[in-house]
Amino acid sequence: MNKKILGITLGAILLIAGIALIIVGVQEIMSAKQGASLVPKNDLAAAVNESQKELVSYEHPATKMKMSYPKNWTLTNDEEGGGVSFSFYGGAVNLRFVSDDFSKNKDPVTLDEYTQVLMAQGREEAAKQQVTISPISDGPATLAGSPGHEWQYTVTIGDVEGSGMQVWTIKNNRSYVFTYTAAGELFNAFTPVVQKMFTSIALP
User: Fold this and answer.
1) CA distance 67 to 73
2) Which of the two ends of the chain, N or C, has the fewest CB atoms closer than 10 A to its terminal CB?
């Protein structure tokens, strides 16, 4: 497949954005002692419960994508890329949304084409940055009622490890990509919160 069919290098940008968020999150919260708990269990359980108490609505201004996110999380707009991040613990837990419009392409972009480009460019860029990505699962998914693709992975930078999950779909010739990243044990702890966020997503 000719990668130029998408007319973008966004595939690498989307994936590396997730890797970058893992790096930042791990660096900010990782304990100096190897193997030490990132957050005391009682505090972590309370933080997860608090994050599920109240969700607030959000609508992305450019794409009209709608979703809900925890009131105690921080919303940050990416002025350069047009995306948005919902984060907690100073970025150690992060869900990022990005999108790209393919309406000007001569031919419609299919989910399979986009998936191939996204994955291939992501692996290539990770190798350049000496980041080790270890896939855990990879396969079809459903996002807001549309056919999509999902993969989960661990990322290792030196002796620091984080986890990620990326889900995307193509609808009306536009991509919708969500990247969830978290340091260490925070990934599993906050996955139920992120699943609620995913369930709330509505695409135009």
Assistant:
1) 14
2) N
CATH number, residue 46: 3.40.1000.10
Domain count, the chain: 1
How far apart are the C-alpha atoms of 78 and 3, rounded to whole Å?
Answer: 25
Residue 180, domain extent: 3-30+38-200
Q: Which of these, 120, 117, 142, 143, lies nearest to 133 by C-alpha position?
A: 120
SS3 13: helix
By mean pLDDT, which of 15-29, 41-55, 167-181, 185-199 is the weakest?
15-29
Radius of gyration over every alpha carbon of the chain, rounded to an integer in angstroms = 17
0.90 exceeded by the pTM?
no
Cα gap 6→133, rounded to integer Å: 24
